[in-house]
Design brief:
The structure holds 2 protein chains of 2 kinds. In chain A, helix 6 (165-176) crosses helix 13 and helix 9 (249-262) packs parallel to helix 10. Chain A has helices at residues 2-23, 29-33, 37-48, 53-58, 65-77, 165-176, 189-196, 235-238, 249-262, 303-312, 335-344, 361-365, 407-418, and strands at 82-93, 99-108, 116-124, 132-134, 146-150, 182-186, 213-216, 221-223, 265-268, 276-278, 297-299, 325-326, 329-332, 351-354, 357-359, 368-371, 381-382, 384-389, 395-399, 422-424, 433-442. In chain A, helix 6 links the parallel strand 5 (146-150) and strand 6 (182-186). The radius of gyration of chain A is 31 Å and the shape is elongated. Chain A is of the alpha/beta class. Chain B is of the alpha+beta class. Helices cover 17% and strands 41% of the residues of chain B. In chain B, strands 15, 16, 17, 19 and 20 form a 5-stranded antiparallel beta sheet that branches. In chain B, strands 21-4-23-22 form a 4-stranded antiparallel beta sheet. In chain B, strands 5, 6, 7 and 10 form a 4-stranded antiparallel beta sheet that branches. In chain B, a hairpin with a 4-residue loop joins strand 13 (266-272) and strand 14 (277-282). The longest helix of chain B is centred in the N-terminal third of the chain and has 54 residues, at 2-55. The N and C termini of chain B lie far apart (56 Å). Classes of the chains: A alpha/beta, B alpha+beta. The interface between A and B is large, with 48 and 54 residues.
Chain lengths: 446, 411
C-alpha cells in the first residue's frame, strides 16, 4: 500500500520537474552571451555614414555602382560569421501628414538563422538642405522685445554653485539668441542703473527698454547700482533704514515698480527670488558677506520678494518678511513643458528638485495670473512659471529650483511664455529622407 | 506484520531513491540557472564597458590632448561624438604590459621610460610612461578593479599590405603592389589614395619629395603602382596608401631604407604631449652603441597634416633640421608639432651620400593604421567564461574595430 503511495509521490515529483523545466526555459547561449548585434549594427551604420557615404549611396539608383560598393563595404567590415540584410525605406507623407515607409531597396548576403537583431539610421539626401528658422519673440504681435542679460562684472552670484553670473549670461545668450532680434548684455551695475532710468545702453536700432525681458543670471542675488545704495543719489528708492537695521528691500520694491512701468518680464533663474543685493565695489556692500563667505553681497531675505511683488502690483512699500517660497521636493514637467522640449530642442531633466516654489497665495495677494507652468502644481506651490499681473503690466518668471541651476529650464520657461514659432523644413517630405535598417545575424556557435 | 515491514522498507527505499534523483535533477537545473545568471552579468558588464569606452570621452573630455590627470575613462572623440574614438586618447594608453604590446623603451638622456605604440620597422609613437594611463587606473575608473578583468583590442578593419615588386635589369624603377583584404576576402574596386615620401639625395639635410596619386584595386583586391623617378634599390622612401570603398576606409604603408639593415638610426620621442614637443634622438643612445665608426646623422623633419580626403598638407615646424653625433654635442634635438592636427612626422635622414632612410611617427594612431591592445598582461586564461563585444568605430577617418573582452575575477 505504501509502495503505491510512494509511487504517487514519484509521479508528483516527476510532474513538478516537468512543469519546472517547461516554464524555466533559459535563453539560448547565443542570445544571452553573444555579441550585442544591435549595437554592432548601429555602430556599423554610423561609421559607414561618417563621411556621408551611406547617405549618398542609398539615394542612388539601384543599378548604380555605389550599391555594389556598399555591399563590399559591409562584407569587408563585418566578421566572417555575420550575415546581414540592409534595407532602405523611402518615406512618403500623404495629404494628412501620415508618414508611410516603402521598401526602396535591399541587399543581403544570406538567410538568417534564429538569432538576429537590427538597428536603424535615418539619413537625409545630400542634395537637400534642412533649415530651422525661429520666429523672433514679439514678431507675431508686432512688439519689439529686447532681451537684457545681467552680466555685471562688479557683482557676485549666489545659489549658482559651479557657475558665475558671467558664464550663465553666456549660456543664456547662446540658448536664446536665435529667438530675439536684439540682445543686450548689461555689463556693470552702473549700466543697470542706466537701464533702470530708462536709458538705452546701445545704439542698436531695435533696442527698447519697454516690453523687455531682463534675465538676472546671479541667482538669488540681484545687482544693485551705486545710486540705489546707502548714500547714493537714489537712496530713498533703494535703502530702507527703518527695518532690519537697514535693508535693501526698498530696492526690490523699486524693481517691481519699474517692471510694471516698463512692462518687463523679470527672470529669476534659480532659488528664492530677490534674496540678496550685490555690488562688489560699493563701500556699503563690498565688505558685507552673505554669511556663507561671498563678499559684495547683503541679504534682504524674504522681504525682497514681497517688496518686488508689491511694486509689481502698484502697492506702496510695506516691509513684509512673510515667507512665500517653500521646499516641495521633486517636481515633474507638465505635459506642455515636455511637448515644448521637443519643439524647441531643449532637454533639461523632466524631474527636478524645487526648494523655493512660490505659494499660489501670491496670485490673489498681488493680482497675478500664472502662465506657462514648467512643472506640475504640488502642494499648492508653483515651482516654475511666469506670473503676469492681471492688468497686463509686467511679469515675473521665477524658477524656484534648488541649486545647481540648469539654465535650460529658464530658457524653456521663457520660450513657453512667449511661444515663438519655429519654422522647420519638412524632414518627412517625400524623397528627402530614408530609413536604413541593418539586420545582423550570427552564423554558427558562439 | 512481516508484509507491512517489507512494504515499509521497499516504499522507504524507493522514496529515498526518488528524492535523491529529484534533488540531483533540480540541482542540475539550478546550477545551469546560476551559471547562466553569472555569465549574463559578465556579458552585461562587457556591454557597459564597451559603451563607456566608445560612447564617452572620459573626464576631462580632452584628456587625450593634455597632460591632465584622468578622472573618468573613455575614448570617444569629444569633438566628433558617436562611434568616433579620439586618436590622442588611445595614444595615452599604457600598452607596455599588455599581451602583444611592444616593450617599453628607456632613454638615458631624459631618464624616462617610454610607452611604445609601434607599427613595424621602427615607426610608431613613444610617449613618456608617466603620461600614460595604466590598466589598473583604467579599471578603477571603470569601477571594476578587482571584480572584472577586461582587455581592449583596437585594430583596423581593412588589411592593407604593400610589397615591392622586383624588376628585371636594366629596369630599376620602383613598382609597389598594394593588396587590400577585408574580413579575409580580397576587396575589389577600392579607391587608393597614395603618397610616396622620397628621400632626396645630394643635399646636406635630406629633403622629402612627395609623389601622390589615385588608383583602384582589381578583381583580386590588388593594385600595382609604378614610380619612374625612384630607384627601387638605391633610393630611400616611405609609401602610405589610404583605401576607401562604400564608407569603409583603411591604410597601409611600406618603407625602404638604404642603410644596409633594418635598424633605424633616428628615433623620435614625444617629450610633452600638451605642447606637441618631440625629441629626435640618435638610435645608439637608445639601443646601445653599435660597431664603429659612429654614424653621424643629418636629418630633416617634415610634418604632414592629414586632410579629410586623405591628402597631405605640409605644415612648417620649428628646428626641422639637425646633426646628431653619438657621444658628441647635443644628445638630441627637439621640434614641435601642431597639436590640433593629426598627421605624420616624417624624418628623412642620411648617414652618408648613399645610406639614407626615413622614419615616420604618427600623430594620432589612425594616420598610420596602428593597432593597439590594452590589458593587464595576464589575459583571460583560467577563467571559465569570457564575454566579448564588437563595435565599428572611426579613428582619424579610418575604420577600426574595437573588441572588448570581459571576465569575472571572482571565478
Amino acid at each position: 500500500m505504501r509502495t503505491v503511495e510512494v509511487l504517487f509521490v514519484i509521479v508528483i515529483l516527476l510532474t513538478a520537474f516537468l512543469i519546472t523545466t517547461y516554464f524555466a526555459v533559459l535563453p539560448s547561449p547565443s542570445q544571452a552571451f553573444g555579441t550585442n548585434l544591435r549595437e554592432l549594427s548601429q555602430s556599423t551604420l554610423e561609421t559607414l555614414d561618417a563621411d556621408g557615404i551611406l547617405s549618398a549611396s542609398v539615394f542612388e539608383d539601384p543599378n548604380d555602382p555605389a550599391w555594389t560598393d556598399l555591399q563590399k563595404a559591409l562584407s569587408a567590415s563585418l566578421p566572417p560569421n555575420m550575415v546581414y540584410n540592409l534595407s532602405i525605406y523611402d518615406l512618403t507623407a500623404d495629404s494628412q501628414g501620415v508618414v508611410n515607409y516603402q521598401l526602396a531597396n535591399s541587399i543581403s548576403d544570406a538567410n538568417f538563422g534564429a538569432d538576429s537583431d537590427a538597428a536603424s539610421l535615418m539619413v537625409t539626401s545630400p542634395n537637400v538642405t534642412f533649415t530651422q528658422d525661429p520666429q523672433k519673440v514679439g514678431e507675431s504681435t508686432g512688439q519689439n522685445i529686447t532681451l537684457y542679460i545681467l552680466n555685471c562684472s562688479d557683482a557676485n552670484g549666489w545659489w549658482i554653485t559651479g557657475y558665475t553670473g558671467q558664464t550663465l549670461a553666456a549660456d543664456v545668450y547662446s540658448l536664446l539668441s536665435p529667438y530675439f532680434t536684439t540682445i543686450v548684455l548689461v555689463n556693470s551695475t552702473s549700466e543697470l542703473g542706466l537701464l533702470l532710468s530708462g536709458t538705452l545702453l546701445t545704439t542698436e536700432v531695435g533696442e527698447s527698454v519697454e516690453n523687455a525681458v531682463v534675465v538676472n543670471t546671479f541667482g538669488e542675488a540681484v545687482p544693485i547700482p551705486d545710486d540705489y545704495c546707502e548714500d547714493g543719489l537714489n537712496e530713498t528708492e533703494g535703502f530702507d533704514p527703518a527695518h532690519d537695521g537697514g535693508t535693501y528691500a526698498k530696492y526690490f520694491h523699486t524693481l517691481g515698480s519699474l517692471t510694471r512701468q516698463y512692462n518687463w518680464t523679470w527672470v529669476s533663474i534659480v532659488g528664492y527670488p530677490f534674496y540678496y543685493v550685490t555690488n562688489t565695489n560699493n563701500p556699503h556692500i563690498s565688505s558685507s558677506q552673505n554669511s556663507y563667505g561671498i563678499y559684495g553681497m547683503k541679504d534682504v531675505r524674504r522681504a525682497g520678494s514681497n517688496a518686488f511683488l508689491q511694486g509689481l502690483d502698484n502697492q506702496g512699500y510695506v516691509y513684509d518678511e512673510n515667507r512665500i517660497a517653500f521646499d516641495i521636493g521633486v517636481v515633474q514637467f507638465t505635459s506642455e513643458a515636455l511637448d515644448r522640449c521637443n519643439y524647441y530642442g531643449i532637454y533639461p531633466a523632466p524631474y527636478q528638485t524645487s526648494s523655493r516654489a512660490l505659494a499660489d497665495d501670491i496670485l490673489d495677494d498681488y493680482h497675478l495670473d500664472p502662465f506657462a507652468s514648467v512643472f506640475e502644481l504640488k502642494n499648492s506651490r508653483i515651482a516654475a512659471a511666469t506670473f503676469r499681473h492681471q492688468d497686463g503690466s509686467g511679469a515675473l518668471t521665477a524658477i524656484g529650483l534648488t541649486r545647481i541651476p540648469d539654465i535650460r529650464v529658464t530658457a524653456l520657461a521663457l520660450l513657453m511664455y512667449y511661444n515663438p514659432t519655429v519654422y522647420k523644413s519638412e524632414f518627412g517630405a517625400s524623397g528627402t529622407s530614408r530609413l536604413v535598417t541593418l539586420q545582423l545575424g550570427q552564423q554558427g556557435g558562439t | 506484520m512481516t508484509g507491512a515491514t517489507i512494504d515499509h522498507m521497499i516504499s522507504l527505499t524507493i522514496l529515498i531513491a526518488a528524492l535523491l534523483v529529484a534533488m540531483m535533477t533540480f540541482n542540475g537545473l539550478f546550477a545551469s540557472a546560476v551559471d547562466y545568471e553569472r555569465n549574463r552579468q559578465v556579458a552585461n558588464k562587457a556591454v557597459d564597458i564597451m559603451n563607456t569606452i566608445c560612447l564617452s570621452p572620459g573626464s576631462p573630455i580632452d584628456w587625450g590632448e593634455t597632460n591632465e590627470t584622468l578622472l573618468g575613462f573613455g575614448l570617444q572623440d569629444p569633438e566628433a561624438g558617436g562611434y568616433t574614438l579620439s586618436p590622442y586618447s588611445i595614444m595615452r594608453l599604457n600598452t607596455g604590459n599588455s599581451s602583444g604590446g611592444s616593450q617599453i623603451v628607456y632613454y638615458p638622456h631624459t631618464g624616462l621610460y617610454y610607452n611604445n605604440v609601434s607599427a613595424n620597422y621602427g615607426h610608431g609613437v613613444l610617449i613618456p610612461l608617466g603620461d600614460c594611463v595604466n590598466y589598473t587606473d583604467a579599471a578603477e575608473l571603470l569601477g571594476i578593479n578587482g571584480t572584472y578583468g577586461f582587455s581592449i583590442d583596437i585594430a583596423p578593419i581593412l588589411e592593407v599590405s604593400v610589397s615591392q615588386v622586383p624588376v628585371s635589369p636594366p629596369q630599376n624603377h620602383l613598382i609597389l603592389k598594394v593588396d587590400v583584404r577585408g574580413s579575409g576576402l580580397p576587396l575589389s574596386g577600392a579607391t587608393l589614395n597614395y603618397n610616396l615620401f622620397h628621400v632626396k639625395k645630394g643635399v646636406t639635410y635630406p629633403l622629402i619629395a612627395t609623389y601622390s596619386g589615385v588608383n583602384q584595386t582589381d578583381s583580386s583586391g590588388s593594385a600595382v603602382i609604378e614610380f619612374d623617378n625612384v630607384d627601387e634599390s638605391k633610393d630611400a622612401y616611405s609609401f602610405i596608401v589610404y583605401v576607401s570603398i562604400g564608407g569603409v576606409t583603411g591604410n597601409g604603408y611600406y618603407t625602404h631604407n638604404t642603410l644596409g639593415d633594418d635598424n633605424q638610426l633616428v628615433i623620435p620621442f614625444i617629450q610633452d604631449y600638451d605642447q606637441g614637443t618631440v625629441i629626435i634622438a640618435h638610435s645608439w643612445d637608445v639601443q646601445g652603441a653599435g660597431s664603429p665608426p659612429v654614424p653621424e646623422i643629418k636629418y630633416n623633419a617634415t610634418f604632414f597634416a592629414l586632410t579629410s580626403d586623405f591628402q597631405f598638407q605640409q605644415i612648417e615646424i620649428v628646428n626641422n633640421t639637425g646633426h646628431l653625433i653619438y657621444g658628441v654635442g647635443d644628445p638630441y634635438f627637439t621640434t614641435q608639432l601642431p597639436v590640433s592636427e593629426v598627421g605624420l612626422l616624417v624624418i628623412s635622414y642620411k648617414r652618408d651620400a648613399t645610406r639614407l632612410g626615413s622614419v615616420i611617427m604618427p600623430w594620432g594612431i589612425g594616420t598610420l593604421g596602428v593597432s593597439t591592445s590594452f590589458d593587464s598582461g595576464f589575459g583571460s586564461s583560467g577563467y571559465d567564461f569570457v564575454a566579448t563585444e564588437l563595435r565599428q568605430v572611426m579613428i582619424d577617418g579610418i575604420s577600426y574595430q574595437v573588441k572588448v573582452s570581459t571576465w569575472s575575477l571572482s571565478g
